[in-house]
Design brief:
This protein is of the alpha/beta class. It contains 27 helices and 19 strands.
Length: 603
């Protein structure tokens, strides 16, 4: 196995071209094996292998800066940069992160877990390099839908004239779901324009036989006519030299082009457009590149699946319901909705800011928009939520998926900040279901909630069924009555709390909060006053619900309750990549901490 000989990128440079091709197959086999054991992003990594190998073969990664966008397509890069042992435990506390992380390796130049950030970061590094008089090249390896994010074009607009600045576009025409919008259609047009290359060659031969002035006149006229569809026009007008499209799996061609670019990229930025196949070399991933974008070790019904099924049924009864997502149709459970209501489903690509303001326009127009976005990505749209939704009090319904602990995705995908962010908007309802039935009821309420913005927040975990049907209201649900201590919680933490109670042998009162905002402070105080200890468990950072409670108690001088109050929430520090359960048990909301608090009750 050629891969066994590679301990650093320098070892790669000693190989023959035939051995590089064998190395690519070794990398495919290794990535399939690793992801089958640990989960992770499969399709995108299989598609970018030849580009990664060729880039490491031609450029010097110990000096030149490699920046991947998005970072989940970096598995081959990690295997080639001395992290093969870490990859054995990918996405665990003792293994490699699933994304680019400079704290993991000096070969990782800039953190990358979100999309469309690479060119801005690369441009900053390039300007810093030039001001300091340093000499190295910067490679931004972007793809998997990154071009659907607006930051890419903001950076391109400022890149004119930057030297030794190379962009490699891994065009697999996919993000997680299919790439959408005008840029996808534009790049597809480039892909099918190879025939045009032959036509242009014939055209130039004909021109060469005409008088010079006549040839120049004809060429200028044709150029103007073809201006808007010319290969690479958008990139060239933004100051880049465009090369492509080329076969992103032809390693000989990639190496030849990279060498040429390496030697001539010292006068203007260059973009190399490579066409690749997501899931390349693995039939299952090639045939269903969306489903096998990322794989998991265990399958179970998630909150997102329940959301998808319920919103589909609700939409059949209410024609005003529309759904918006940002390249997360499958991840947010909206595949069936998109198939049943294609005219009422909008995948805007990796453009969360646009998604929110677009939804505000839909709400202003009298529809009922549901915006389904992961918690970590919704942070990008904070200003749009404030300016375009909050200030107009528009009834946009936010489905905040993957909130709380991120599990194996780690710190770049952490969802522990959303409550602290959005509780600053007083008219912003925040709901948190603890089980399947509650989520279904909350969605029914959301459909008819037309007075303000509303969010339903749930984590990346299996959804709990509830054994009995109970009356649902947007109010505290008292699950059980006990003595001396009262526990308030929200979300799917009930079994976690019950385990701690079983260990402690204490019988507390347990209350499911359900409605985080607006919070019923008066009822909270009324329920709590008879108990010796009040425990609030929050899968979110301080600054969220716990801070809202303490602010209210201080302002209203409930000093007796403050003395009995204990908050178990999450530190503000980013969490490592490991299982969600491990993250919980290492935090202040662990079973151990709950047991300790239950065991120290004032009689």
């Amino acid at each position: 196995m050629i891969l066994d000989l590679i301990n650093s990128p320098n070892d790669l440079k000693e190989l023959r071209t035939s051995e590089l091709k064998e190395l690519c197959q070794d990398l495919r086999s290794e990535i399939i094996r690793i992801t089958s054991q640990n989960g992770g992003h499969l399709g995108s990594n299989l598609g970018i292998i030849e580009i990664t190998v060729a880039a490491h073969y031609v450029f010097n990664c110990s000096i030149d800066k490699f920046i991947f966008d998005v970072g989940h397509q970096s598995y081959a890069h990690k295997l080639l940069t001395g992290r093969r042992k870490l990859m054995e435990n990918l996405r665990s506390s003792i293994g490699a992160s699933g994304f680019i992380d400079p704290s993991e390796s000096d070969y990782d130049s800039f953190i990358s877990g979100h999309a469309s950030t690479s060119l801005s970061a690369s441009l900053g590094l390039a300007k810093a390099r030039d001001i300091k008089g340093e000499d190295f090249k910067i490679l931004s390896i972007l793809g998997d839908g990154s071009l659907s994010g607006g930051m890419i074009y903001e950076a391109m607009n400022n890149s004119d004239g930057v030297k030794n600045f190379i962009v490699i576009l891994n065009d697999n025409q996919m993000s997680i779901s299919e790439s959408v919008g005008a840029m996808k259609k534009y790049l597809t047009k480039l892909l099918i324009s190879k025939r045009g290359l032959i036509c242009r060659k014939i055209f130039r031969n004909l021109l060469s036989k005409l008088p010079t002035k006549l040839a120049q006149c004809i060429e200028k006229t044709v150029k103007n006519l073809l201006y808007l569809i010319k290969d690479g026009t958008i990139f060239e007008e933004l100051g880049f030299q465009y090369i492509g499209p080329i076969d992103g799996h032809d390693i000989d061609k990639l190496i030849a082009i990279f060498k040429n670019v390496r030697d001539v990229a010292n006068y203007k930025p260059v973009i190399i457009h490579a066409i690749t196949k997501k899931g390349k070399g693995y039939n299952l991933a090639e045939n269903d590149s969306t489903k096998l974008h990322g794989v998991e070790r265990f399958k179970s019904e998630k909150f997102s699946n329940v959301f998808g099924e319920e919103i589909l049924q609700l939409a059949k009864k209410d024609e005003k319901i529309v759904c918006i997502t940002a390249a997360m149709k499958h991840g947010c459970g909206l595949r069936k909705f998109s198939e049943n209501f294609p005219d009422r489903f909008f995948d805007v690509g990796i453009a969360e800011e646009h998604a929110v303001t677009f939804a505000a326009g839909l709400a202003k127009g009298g529809l009922k928009p549901f915006v389904a976005i992961y918690s970590t990505f919704l942070q990008r749209a904070y200003d749009q939520i404030y300016h375009d939704v909050f200030l107009q009090n528009l009834p946009v319904r936010f489905i905040i998926d993957k909130s709380g602990f991120p599990g194996e995705d780690g710190k770049t995908h952490s969802g522990i900040y959303d409550i602290a962010l959005f509780r600053n908007f007083p008219n912003f309802f925040i709901l948190a279901p603890s089980n399947k039935l509650e989520l279904q009821h909350m969605l029914k309420i959301a459909v008819n909630h037309n007075s303000s913005p509303l969010a339903v927040r749930f984590p990346k975990t299996a959804v709990m069924e509830h054994s009995c049907n109970y009356q649902f209201e947007l109010d505290f649900r008292i699950i059980s009555y006990g003595e001396r201590v009262i526990i308030f919680f929200f979300g799917p933490l009930l079994n976690h709390i019950l385990q701690a109670i079983n260990i402690s042998k204490i019988n507390p009162t347990i209350v499911d909060i359900r409605l985080i905002q607006p919070f019923d402070f008066k009822k909270f105080c009324k329920l709590s006053k008879e108990y010796n200890k009040i425990i609030v468990i929050e899968e979110g950072i301080s600054g969220g619900l716990s801070s809202a409670i303490i602010e209210y108690l201080f302002q209203n001088k409930y000093l007796d309750l403050i003395k009995k109050l204990v908050f178990l929430n999450i530190a503000k520090d980013p969490v490592d990549h490991e299982s969600r359960q491990s993250q919980i048990e290492k935090s202040r909301i662990s079973i151990k901490n709950i047991v300790n608090e239950l065991s120290t009750i004032n009689i």
